[in-house]
Amino acid sequence: MAKTVVVTGGAGFIGSHVADRFLAEGWEVTILDDLSSGREENIPSAARFVRGDITTPEAAALIRDGKFDVMCHLAAQIDVRRSVLDPVYDATRNILGTLNLMEAVRAGGHPTRTILSSTGGALYGDFDPPPSAESNSKDPEAPYGIAKLSIEYYLAYYGRVHGLDNVALRYGNVYGPRQDPHGEAGVVAIFCNRLLDGRALTVFGDGEQTRDYVYAGDVAGANFAAATVDLPPRGRLDARAFNIGTSIETSVNTLAETLRAVSSAHSPIDYAPARAGELARSALNTTKAQAVLGWTPKVTLREGLENTYRFFADRRARLETQA
Fold first, then answer.
1. What is the fold, at CATH topology level, of the domain defined by 4-175+214-244?
2. How far is CA 110 from the centre of its chain?
3. Residues paired with 169 in a beta bridge
4. What is the pLDDT of residues 49-100, one digit of tens each?
5. What is the pLDDT of residue 4?
6. Catalytically annotated residues
7. Where does residue 289 rank: exposed (0-12), middle (13-18), buried (19+ CB within 10 A)?
8. Which CATH architecture has domain 184-211+247-282+299-322?
């Protein structure tokens, strides 16, 4: 009998890649998504789709009664800027929504492994030089990161007190096909669309701020690895947390220049005032993921940007043909 996985947020950018990976491995995939930010076109045809909000009793019933082997939890409020403007909304979606699902797992009594999509870039802050290890101090600058850290504490609690099988994956800045221009990582999608429009690329500050850009297909591979390997014993917060990135700092200037080269476009780069509160540097130490999950990123930044730009160019061409 095939193993089963439910992917919350599976119609979204990262979630749809995760669903694709599990389907490719022969798993039965259920997608739970309210389509508030996800797209129906992202849902794989071989997956079962349930439209629903993770904060509702109906979503809890699906998880409780589904007896899934794995839950990849990606449904979330993902916009850092919105979390700053409306931290109550952010906490309601991200913290209370997750608790609704975790209580459902506990009530169901099935040994479901929950894999939380957490954040590395927004978790560690600017106080320790990168690359950040899982044991580094956590000093999130925005409610989004605070909520993700809170959820990780809850997962550690559910593991220690209730024996639930939980793991947290702390992502760098994920990019790739199907990406929407939300949050900091959305800069790749924004730049691709601007290049296709022949418009200037806007860089805030001097462009030397760095991020750890990790390809969506590699993130999907990390989710599958976390679903199928033996994990360390349950314990403190970082016991079952893993950074998922490349350990490479890439500046916004380098990102812009690489995309211009990939696209063969000549869009100028415009510099705008720096944004308050923006991290100066970010990269993740992935030694633990390599050792425990057997996971390493396989797609180089150049290759990933080529794939991503091609996706946006092809989609633009299809839309123009249909117009």
1. Rossmann fold (3.40.50)
2. 26
3. 117, 242
4. 999 999 999 999 999 999 999 999 999 998 888 888 999 999 999 999 999 9
5. 98
6. 144
7. buried
8. Alpha-Beta Complex (3.90)
